[in-house]
């Protein structure tokens, strides 16, 4: 069963209204925003990733889902497999660092013992509060598409984590992403749609367009790339199909109140159109990370 | 690192006030009660358990934590490893049944793909609302200790699931526990302390006594056993050290408003004292399931 099949089957179960028919990354309960992730060694992180960074990334990626809702973090609940003492201690130190960095306390959780040889699996539920949580599917025809920060750095960082030569700054973008909490809070009232980029700019922008019932046109020449990424040799199309950016992608019809780059627009229709300096170019075979 | 060591280390991290210093099964956020569990094939359920029943038990055991807080279920968030089609379909059917049975909708969640040969691991976060959530550690000297229902049936059911001959009623108590939601809601304002019995009556009563700073005296002759369990041949001490009952254990100084059995009392001191018809007997080597 694919993820899409499974989610379609879940939609036939009794759903809470705040589940938004399972079309979004987060659920709502009044002004509470809830998001849940499981991450698996060898799938979502490398078994060689430092445990301090695994802790950081587990929390930061969930806080990124909250950021996309304009939420202020309230707390997290951890599901943790107790195993190797050294790994556990380092994980706890990374967890302490990330909770302090984003002013987000621990609310509770559960510990388990895994059978020997089972891959490490961690789970996190993050809760935040937002009075104006934007949806993924609210883009309107004529809206511009904007992105915070730079794209593709984490994709290069993953290559570096796997052994490529490259700067620590790019590796840090992969291992220690920064959820755009302040930007999300500032943007929430101004945007028509918002989401974080986790699987890749193109695939995620396509999801926003699909949820909004529109075409999104993206000009790859406008995609913001860091100097380090350009020196590393990744081009805009590689960057736009890499994952793990955790930047905020949003649709609005005014100048945003935070630094961001306009990379495209929404028009009537359905799908994703790529341009380079205004001229249509073919879509790459792979738009991003497919679950 | 043991679970106790790990939780002690978590207590040095930034904690939410609603985490109650991680001394309870559930966290609080205003009137919201939150609980999170991970369950692992081969550890928390048998790989041979029917997937419909695994779904039931995953939800029912979390709702049991809510019941112990007198909470009305609000919704659940599921972390699910998509794998074998038949297993997934059966799980979905069990999930549908349990959500409908306890009027608890799905709020959201996350799906993952596990590496081949990884044991199945599922995670659930359950949310409920309770205006008067009792704590585990509120028992007072002179309080009586009470238990709903009968004890030990699920322990016999586990033996039956592993191949012993025995009635379907006992197997069902192991595979399809019933969270005592209505009882918990009725009890919440009347009790000084309440928790659900998941690891075994003796070990859990000992935890309530420790959290309350008291001795709990339990008379094993008073422990309520079903006719089926007695026919199966398990005695009260076996029943009181088996897990998976999901009955409510509570301390109060009045007659409870729901059917329950008085099995002991709290007195000054620290620890667990066992009696049989009023006469002290030695503690068994094993008080219940140790994580």
CATH class of the largest domain in chain A: Alpha Beta
Largest sheet: spatial strand order of chain A: 7-9-6-10-8-11-12
Tally of alpha and pi helices of chain A: 9
Number of structurally distinct domains of chain A: 2
State the share of residues found in helices of chain A, binned by percent: 25-40%
Topology, number of strands of chain A = 12
- Class by SSE composition of chain A: alpha+beta
> At CATH's second level, what is the architecture of the largest domain in chain A?
Alpha-Beta Complex
CATH topology of the largest domain in chain A: Phosphoribosyl-aminoimidazole Synthetase, Chain A, domain 2
Order of helices and strands of chain A: HEEHEHEEEHHHEHEHHEEEE
Instruction: Name the CATH superfamily classification of the largest domain in chain A.
Output: PurM-like C-terminal domain
Q: Judging from the principal axes of the Cα atoms, what is the shape of chain A? A: globular
Largest interface: A-B, 64 and 65 residues
What number is the mean pLDDT of chain A? 95
The share of residues in extended strands of chain A comes to 25-35%
The major pleated sheet of chain A works out as: 7 strands, mixed
Distance between the termini of chain A: 12 Å
Gyration radius from CA atoms of chain A, angstroms: 19 Å
Q: Care to describe what's here?
A:
Two copies of one chain form a homodimer. Chain A is α+β, with helices and mostly antiparallel strands and 291 residues long. Chain A folds into two domains: 3-129, PurM-like, N-terminal domain (60s Ribosomal Protein L30, Chain: A); 144-281, PurM-like C-terminal domain (Phosphoribosyl-aminoimidazole Synthetase, Chain A, domain 2, Alpha-Beta Complex), CATH 3.90.650.10. In chain A, 31% of the residues lie in helices and 26% in strands. In chain A, the strands form two sheets. Chain A has a seven-stranded mixed beta sheet, with helices on both faces. In chain A, strands 1-2-5-3-4 form a five-stranded mixed beta sheet, with helices on one face. In chain A, strand 11 and strand 12 (279-281) form a beta hairpin. The longest helix of chain A has 17 residues, at 51-67. The relative contact order of chain A is 0.16. Chains A and B meet through helix 1, strand 2, strand 3, helix 3 and strand 4 of A and helix 1, strand 2, strand 3, helix 3 and strand 4 of B.
